[in-house]
Each structure stands twice: as structure tokens, then as C-alpha cells.
Write a structure and sequence with these properties.
The structure is a homodimer of 313-residue chains.
Chain A (H helix, E strand, L loop, with lengths): L5 E5 L3 H12 L3 E5 L3 H20 L6 H5 L2 E3 L3 H5 L4 E4 L5 H14 L5 E4 L7 H4 L8 E6 L8 E6 L7 H12 L2 E4 L9 H17 L5 H16 L4 H6 L6 H17 L9 H14 L5 H20 L5
Parallel strand pairs in A: 1-2, 1-4, 2-3, 4-5, 5-6, 7-8
Antiparallel strand pairs in A: 6-7
Helix pairs in contact in A: 1-2
Chain lengths: 313, 313
């Protein structure tokens, strides 16, 4: 496989535009396509706005030099035909991803690689009947990919074995943090970890043990601080004098009891979701969701800038 | 109850010393006692070292002015007799906490309040036979309390109802972030949330889906970034255009499937713990655990300093 130099981005929404920034800021040439003419018309302006925000936080230098590497094209084939790598970020529904993947598979070079931004649907669910299906896998980012560097790489059973090490290396060169999920599993690793914590949060709320605001504070002012620079295994490895086995001996039984208490998981019922929604809408009216998301992105940018200056050891 | 001005700290290990810093840096007078003469002899030097580290990150001003507010005393009674508030941070075992709580209950003023640093044992398990038991509750910090501000307040069934609002307010005035757990539950909120994520992490590792290092990266470079300034409910509230109910409609079924797949939780087996331990010890030899913990604390201090400069909206 060639070096990842030319990229086709299929799907120009928030995720696809974020990916375009990831590739272009690393010097790669990007051709972006979206089936919606409206999204195509607005994509580059949105990308320039994101880049200007990043520049204000010292995360990128010359905005125009980056934006110039991205061209919006009028057909999917034009976006992917010459690409070394294609990032597919269309709507997350099996039939939509399958149809787009068929088009991509028919138009790519034999040695191109196609990563899907799918956040939970495995590639085998939408690439079984796709031309060159052995070139496809999942490359799931966190939103927005230009600020949160993690990418989960999840091969389908038929993905060419040479692709995983190639893409891991390529993602590292782009400045992302790739992890490998060895086999397909619903939700992959990231959303399974998030889901486990969310399920416990909903269950504690449902039992009346704490308000949604206090559960949020418990993470934002407690658990989340260490987790923003160390994972859960390293955290417990440093949380007992003898390391992770010492910790497991002391606290494993408590955590097993927590798991035992959740043997009969309940779905997030409409009533439950309604109560949390009311609490959230009192804290943040629906009209302010967009402004709060912009605040979140500014906090993320400031955090990313902060992390850059920190030593890894 | 009086304003929280004079504090008795019982237990002078890492947690107790961290609490002494929390109180003293907010201008309170602290009397610290530990049953070990060795710990008593070294406590103030350790506190001065922590304060000097914090000063280097701009987190405190005059180290000596803070240290001068802390005196190490030679008896438990001397530490607690005049205290408005007592923070108990002795070894986490029911019999140890029960014996120390009896001594504290016999020596405090009638209107004093006693918070235990217990990280999972509810106060009713060790205060049932304690004098003035209605003055006791759990005030569980995250380690180290002078860097991570969260405190879980968990009343026993017999805790005086006036204490919770008083202590919540007092903790806020100290600069901590208190949350209320309405009823006793094993692990409280923080360690139940941590345990849910850890249980999923161990299960994914056991199934061979990812390495411990890649699971750690998934949190440290993915999930943990937003969680260092927003809780899980706010995170999903901002992750769908229509807010938390929109998110729950779209992703609730996936997360319920994750929970359904864990209906038969396995304990963290010796074999499993051994394998993660080997992976961790290859990444970080046991001899380096202490240096890595010092790095963690420096990263925490830098993160806390960074958070101080960030807008809340």
C-alpha cells in the first residue's frame, strides 16, 4: 500500500468535516463529497470557521494553507477514485452505509483502504456484498475528530490483514491515537465503556440515589480528572501501593458486588428519560443547547492545547 | 451549628494529610492526630512538600502561612474536643472505623459533625453503637482531596437532617465540590460509576478484544477528555441535536444490549488479574510505580491549574 497522501472523505457533516481537518492539517490532500448539494455548498465555510477557532487556541497555524488542501467535489467517484484512503462518515444506518459502501467499493483503486466512522455498527453488517470488501474496516472517531484524537480500528472478518498495521501507523502519523479492537463487537470498546458507566448512572438516578446534576459533578470534578490523561487500568495500578493486583485484591469484591446488583438491567424507560430530560432542560433550556455545545468545543480546544504542553512521564 | 472554623483530622496518612491541606488553605484551624507516632512525626513535613509542589503550579500562595494553621497533636481527644467538624480518615475496615468512631463520638462537642473518608463502607456499618451517632456521616473524597475537589456526602439512617445542608454549604466554602448520595449504597455513586466502567474494561480484556494499553488509551485520549469538565448526562445531552431524550431514543437500545450481555458477571479472576498485571508491569516496572504516581500528581496539579482559568459557560 502507498503512503496515506490523498484522501477521499465521503459525508460532509460534522464528523466528515472534522476528518477533513485531521487529514489536511497533517499536509494530506482531501477530496470531500456529500450527497447533499446544500452540505457541499457550506462545508468549506464550516471547516474554515472550525480552523479559525482552533487557531485562536494555538492548535493550528495557517488556516488558509490547511483549507486550500481540501476541495469539495461533485461526485463520490471523483472523491475516492485516486484516494489512498477513504473515510466514510455518512448517516449511521445499515442500509445507508451499505449503499454508500457499494458505490465506494466500485470506484476505489484496488489498493485503497476504506474506514467507516460507524460508532457501533460493525463493518461486516454493511460490507458483505460490497466490491473489494476486503479493503473495508471501521475507523471510529470521537466527535469532533479534529479535537479528540482517539480512533477505534475494527476489522471485519474479511478485512485484509495488512490493513490494520498500515492504518494504525498512518493514523499515528496524522496525530490521532489509534486503538485496535481485535474482533467485531457491538459498540466496540469506547461506546461499551461509555455505556457501562451510563447504564449505572441511569440506574442510580432511577433509584433516587442522586440527582443527574450530582452524578454529572461526580464525574466532572472527580473521576474524569485522572481519566483525561490516564486510562482506568493505569488509574487503579497507581491507586494501591502494590499496583493493579494489590488493588484488585482489595476492591475486586466490591466491584463484583456492583455488577451482581445489575444482573437484571432495565432499559432506559420513557419515564426515566423524561425525568432526566426535565432536569437537564431546567439546567439548560433547549434553546441554549447549541451555545453550550460551542462552549464544550472551546473547553475541548483549551484542554487539547493544555495537554500538548504536558510531559508523558 | 457553628460555622466550620476549627477542624479535627483523625488519621494522618495520604488522605488525612490531603484533607488538612484543604481546610488550612481555606483559612481553617486544623488539629491532626494519627495513632502512629511515626506518622505524626512526619506528617507536617509531608504536608509542606505537597504545598511546595502546589505552589510551583500556582495553586497556593504562602506555604508557611497555610502550614502554620495545622498542628499535629498527641491525642485523639485533643484533635476533636473543640472541633466544629472532624474528618476521619483511618484505615478502611469496619472494626477499625468503629473503634475510632467510638473514641471520636465520646470526645466531640454535641453540635460537632463527623465526616468519614470511607470510600465504600456506609456510616451505619460502623456508627450504630457510637456515642452521638446522629452527628456522623460519610464525606468521601477522591485521592488526593487537595487536588480533586469532589466529596460524596452520604448520611446514615440516623444522621441529623440538619447536617447535610450544613456540610454541603461548608464544603462549597472550602472550594470542594460536594454531591449528596440520598441513601446508603455500597460503593456510593463515584465508585459504582468507576466500577461499572472497570467491570466492562476487564470483561473486554478477558474476551481478548483489546489490550489493557488500548483500553486505557480509549479513555485517556477519547472518553476522558469531555468527562474532565462535563458529566455523562451533560455529555450525551450535547451529543444529539435534540438533547438527552433524542440521544436516548437513538442509542438507548445499543446500551441496553451492552447491559444484557453482562447479565452473568464474572469476578476479576486471579488469572485475569495476573495477565493485566503482567501487561502493566511490562509497561511500568514495579520499581517505577512511585515515580509514576508523582507524575500523576503533577499532571493533576497542572490540570487543576488549567481548569481554574476556564469559563463555566
Amino acid at each position: 500500500m502507498r503512503r496515506l497522501e490523498t484522501v477521499g472523505v465521503v459525508g460532509g457533516g460534522l464528523v466528515g468535516s472534522g476528518w477533513a481537518i485531521v487529514f489536511a492539517r497533517a499536509g494530506r490532500t482531501v477530496r470531500l463529497f456529500d450527497a447533499s448539494a446544500e452540505i457541499r455548498a457550506g462545508a468549506l465555510a464550516g471547516i474554515r470557521r472550525s480552523l479559525a477557532d482552533m487557531q485562536a487556541f494555538g492548535l493550528v497555524g495557517d488556516v488558509e494553507a490547511i483549507a486550500r488542501r481540501i476541495s469539495v467535489v461533485d461526485s463520490l467517484a471523483e472523491a475516492v477514485a485516486e484516494a489512498d484512503y477513504v473515510q466514510e462518515s455518512v448517516f449511521e444506518r445499515v442500509d445507508v452505509k451499505a449503499a454508500v459502501s457499494r458505490e465506494i467499493g466500485a470506484a476505489i483503486r484496488d489498493d485503497a483502504v476504506v474506514g467507516s466512522s460507524s460508532s457501533g455498527i460493525p463493518a461486516s453488517a454493511f460490507t458483505a456484498d460490497v466490491p473489494r470488501r476486503e479493503r473495508f474496516l471501521v475507523a471510529h472517531p470521537v466527535n469532533p475528530p479534529h479535537l479528540v484524537p482517539l480512533v477505534e480500528l475494527v476489522p471485519a472478518p474479511w478485512t485484509d490483514g495488512a490493513i490494520l498495521p498500515w492504518l494504525r501507523q498512518a493514523m499515528e502519523e496524522l496525530g490521532q491515537v489509534p486503538v485496535v479492537v481485535n474482533r467485531e463487537i457491538e459498540g466496540f470498546v469506547l461506546n461499551r465503556l461509555q455505556g457501562a458507566l451510563l447504564n449505572e448512572a441511569w440506574a442510580l438516578y432511577e433509584a433516587g440515589l442522586a440527582s443527574a446534576a450530582d452524578i454529572d459533578r461526580t464525574v466532572a470534578h472527580g473521576l474524569g480528572l485522572r481519566w483525561s490523561f490516564m486510562g482506568p487500568f493505569e488509574t487503579i495500578d497507581l491507586n494501591a501501593p502494590g499496583g493493579v493486583d494489590d488493588y484488585a485484591r482489595r476492591l475486586g469484591p466490591l466491584y463484583h458486588a456492583v455488577a451482581q446488583a445489575r444482573r437484571d438491567p432495565r432499559p432506559w424507560s420513557d419515564d426515566l428519560v423524561g425525568r432526566v430530560t426535565r432536569e437537564r432542560r431546567e439546567a439548560l433550556p433547549a434553546a441554549d443547547l447549541k451555545a453550550r455545545s460551542a462552549w464544550r468545543d472551546r473547553r475541548l480546544m483549551a484542554l487539547v492545547a493544555h495537554r500538548r504542553g504536558q510531559p508523558d512521564r
